[in-house]
From TrEMBL:
Sections of the chain in a coiled coil: none
All residue ranges annotated as the PDZ domain in the record: 66-133
Protein's name in the database: (Mediterranean fruit fly) hypothetical protein
Keyword Membrane: yes
PROSITE patterns: PDZ
Native organism: Ceratitis capitata (Mediterranean fruit fly)
InterPro entries the UniProt entry points to: PDZ (IPR001478), PDZ_6 (IPR041489), PDZ_sf (IPR036034)
Transmembrane segments: 33-53
Keywords recorded for this protein, A-Z: Membrane, Transmembrane, Transmembrane helix
Length: 219
């Protein structure tokens, strides 16, 4: 009888060990599956983030411009800056004809981000003017300006035309009217330009943040 009990106990112990070994093997298999899924998920997330960043960098490269404005004899740049209390950066509200700013490619509606590598976020127009004045007094011959330009806003100088009798029109008057129209359009569209750009930037960051969230705990 004792031998039968020992045999049955040994068999039970063997079955328990086999069951535990099976559970461990099953757990390891499940862990391997989850590890592979996690690896593939992280790879996909990384690829999507790279794609979004690449698109965002393309947008930035298209909208960011660097202009080099040479010094004028009177010490001015030939442009007028405006900034509302809610505007983070000033923007170009006017450009003098034939000025260095016009020759450098500045346009009405451009948002000014930097002067000579200095960020002008939240600065008043007077503070910017004092910095530029000090820059001229140091003997500098040019000013480097980083601007934000919305490339979707087209300059329709040609589409405003359609004049059949150009010889009878005063070219100076036409140019002045077109310039006034561009200034008026820039005033009307400037706030929408900044809002659209900021919305695109916020949407891109939101997509990236959602991709980085854990699908289980959403953190």
């Amino acid at each position: 009888m004792s031998n039968d009990k020992n045999n049955s106990n040994n068999q039970c112990a063997f079955y328990r060990q086999a069951a535990e070994a099976g559970k461990q093997a099953n757990n390891k298999h499940q862990i391997n599956i989850w590890a592979r899924l996690l690896l593939h998920t992280n790879t996909i997330i990384f690829i999507i983030i790279v794609i979004h960043l690449e698109r965002f960098l393309l947008i930035l490269s298209a909208m960011l411009k660097i202009c080099k404005i040479n010094a004028c004899p009177n010490g001015t740049l030939g442009l007028h800056l405006s900034r509302a209390p809610w505007d983070p950066y000033p923007w170009v509200s006017g450009i003098q004809e034939g000025s260095s700013a016009e020759e450098a490619g500045m346009r009405v509606g451009d948002t000014v981000l930097e002067f000579n590598g200095n960020d002008v976020l939240g600065q008043k127009i007077l503070e910017i003017a004092n910095r530029i004045r000090a820059h001229w007094q140091s003997g500098a011959t040019d000013v480097t300006v980083v601007i934000w330009r919305n490339e979707t806003e087209l300059d329709n100088d040609c589409s405003d035309g359609g004049y059949e009798d150009e010889e009878q029109e005063d070219n100076g008057t036409i140019a002045e009217e077109q310039r006034k129209q561009r200034v008026q359009r820039s005033h009307q569209q400037h706030s929408s330009i900044n809002q659209q750009s900021l919305q695109k930037f916020a949407t891109c960051l939101q997509h990236i943040a959602q991709l980085l969230e854990c699908p289980v705990c959403l953190e």
